[in-house]
Model the fold of this input.
Amino acid sequence: MKRINHRSLRLIAIFLVLFSISGCEKRNTGNVEEGTKYSAVLCIGSWPNIAYYISGIPSLTSGTISLKGNGAEMTGKVYAQDVIQKDGFYYHANAGSGRLGKYHVENGVLITDKEIPFSWLSWASYTWVDNNTLLIIGEGKGEARYAIIKVDKMTLKIGRLTLNAIPSGFQVYNIGFAEYRNNKIFLGYGFGSNDWTNYPQMPVYPKSYVAVIDYTSMNVEKSIEETRSNGLGGSSVYAPSSFIDENNDLYFISDPVNIYDYKSNSAMYRIKSGSTEIDPTYFFNFSAAANGEKAPAMWYIGNGKAIVRSRIAGESIDTDHYYRIIDVKTGSMIKKLDLPADKGERMVNAVIVEDGKAFIAVNAADRDYIWQYNPATDQLTKGVEFIGGIDYILRIEKLK
Done:
């Protein structure tokens, strides 16, 4: 299995200038089967010669998936797996090409529904305000910026967020998780450097913040300072690190490695329903309970349980990953799932939750499956297998 080396979104932008799409490997593709409930974003090749495809998945629990007759190529329209999918439509903001697009798959082709000029921010995180309103947040020229998009007509409103000023020695905002609740936006953020001289050792600011933003005005009401961990969530356009549960409580988990902090632990926090403060009675030190592992992604599976995709300890973003079940109510570890090690890539949207079960895509050393985990019986079952020279499963999605 080939690995993709994602150093950072900024390095990717640089590489995009250096390498043209024509260098990507091509494969024959056919129709994506109509009526499928699920899809996968897949890639073949190795950086920078990578081609990306969307394939339909008829069933999560059985059969095989290959690109033969079932692959709509994304390369050239949508850069990579940093897409937002809702109701079968895919959204992608590409600051490098200066466009924001809405796309869907039809007859084996990624169709452009509409593209609009867009170079105002490098997107990082998003949240849906309602079924037609998408809020995206990112960084641009040392400013925290946002865009509110009405996705039916692809119109947008753009603006700046008055977050805490960038301190001396740092040049950019690191944008973390974003969640909408009761007309408030909760946004994790911190500060980073654009000086890559000593990579992977980067300047690390020792504090992170949660901004509470009034959605109507987009005014920042306050920024809550946090020093017990660092890197409050990663770029949610790749994978989630927060959720709101049945009680309207907001949970989020930190990923210090996302901001090149290799010393801080990953930790989980809560903001209770009706509150705009981090719950002082709740703090779950995930790394201490998981052999020092960090937590780049998290999915809520219901009944007070969540799946965390954990990265082994070390100074590498791309390394082996595992899946762990946690009790979010008590802030405690339940178990490590008995799955093969997931090889390398951190930016993976790997879980679909449906009918009380979790379906987990695993990029193993030999054969790649979507596994079914039933929390009621605590059983793991092999599901659909990916075959035919696919190098990586980057996203799995429920379309409807």
In short: The longest strand covers residues 172-181. Confidence is low (pLDDT under 50) at residues 5-31. Residues 119 and 150 are 17 Å apart (CA to CA). Helices lie at 9-18, 286-289.
